[in-house]
Design a protein that fits this description.
Layout lengths: L20 E5 L3 H7 L4 H22 L3 E8 L7 H24 L2 E6 L7 H14 L5 E9 L1 H15 L9 H4 L13 E4 L18 E4 L9 H12 L35
Helix pairs in contact: 1-2, 2-3, 3-4
Bound molecules: 3-methylbut-3-enyl trihydrogen diphosphate (2 copies) and magnesium ion (MG).
One 3-methylbut-3-enyl trihydrogen diphosphate binds next to α1.
Length: 270
């Protein structure tokens, strides 16, 4: 069964100049605050402003999907006070932003294991998703209590329960619809702020062929200029998906001009 979106390992996806889907690990809030002799949580609060700015910036640039890692399945290991601050911040950000997101045509999605969250938070999430479900300008996904391994496992378990007769014979296209982000194409561009160069159990399956961009800029300092630098870097990449560079050269026009010297035309960014 072919999915709604091209799988980067099953076929060659279309590549545009603007990444259709950007996924970001928003890192560096604590260090941003520490540098200013403020408590770590002040950095988280400030980070919400960057989220707001990035939603606007992505809409303006024609990005269709923005996915933000807000809380990993490993972030429960943090001090309880920080975890509870983050949960309250999530609640207040949802309360304050859903109306504005809706007015701007943003569809909100939250992916992750919500069973660990307080019922009032889950209710707010579901309300926000329902209210914005028919918007199509930008799909904003917040990954909360999300882990890439958890996502793959929940998909495997769902699939095995749905098709016990096919266990042992599953293919990629059987599994993909059960992943949390089956409603989105794979990320074209992955950005991690804050200087670390790791995936930290984010979208393990979906990042298979994403272009990776790491920046030292701390999340509260990340702005439109920094986003444009990431997109510019993306546009310089040659996305081969396993092929050779030569294979990306466009076929010649029907009537080839007399041979002269010159560089071949490629479909990578000029
Ligand atoms: C990212 O910032 C936000 C969350 C993980 C919730 P950090 O809190 O990890 O900030 P640093 O990495 O300690 O600076
Ligand atoms: C990754 O950041 C998770 C989020 C941004 C939500 P961390 O700060 O938790 O990652 P590690 O622990 O440095 O890998
Ligand atoms: Mg961090």
């Amino acid at each position: 069964m072919a999915g709604k979106f091209t799988s980067s390992t099953q076929a060659i996806p279309d590549v545009g100049k603007v990444p259709r889907h950007i996924a970001i690990i928003m890192d560096g809030n604590g260090r941003w605050a520490k540098k200013r002799l403020m408590p770590r949580v002040a950095g988280h609060k400030r980070g919400v402003e960057t989220v707001r700015a990035m939603v606007k910036a992505c809409i303006a640039r024609g990005v269709e999907y923005l996915t933000l890692f807000a809380f990993s399945s490993e972030n429960w290991r943090r001090p309880v006070e920080e975890v509870s601050f983050l949960m309250n911040l999530f609640v207040s950000a949802l309360q304050g932003e859903i109306g504005k997101l809706h007015a701007n045509g943003v569809r909100l999605k939250v992916v992750g294991d919500l069973s660990a969250f307080e019922p009032r938070l889950v209710a707010l999430i579901r309300e926000g998703e329902a209210k914005t479900a028919n918007n199509f300008r930008l799909t904003l996904t917040i990954a909360a209590n999300y882990g890439g391994r958890w996502d793959i496992l929940q998909a495997v378990n769902q699939l095995a329960l749905a098709h016990p007769e096919k266990v042992g014979c599953f293919g990629e296209a059987d599994l993909a619809p059960h992943l949390m982000m089956a409603y989105a194409p794979e990320p074209d561009l992955f950005i991690r702020t804050g200087g670390e160069q790791r995936i930290s159990n984010f979208l393990l399956w979906q990042l298979a062929y994403s272009e990776l961009h790491f920046t030292d800029t701390l999340w509260p300092d990340f702005d439109e200029t920094a986003l444009d630098a990431a997109i510019a870097s993306y546009r310089r990449r040659e996305r081969r998906f396993g092929r050779t560079s030569e294979q990306l050269v466009e076929p010649p026009l029907a009537v080839p001009p007399a041979p002269t010297s010159g560089a071949p035309v490629t479909n990578s960014d000029a």
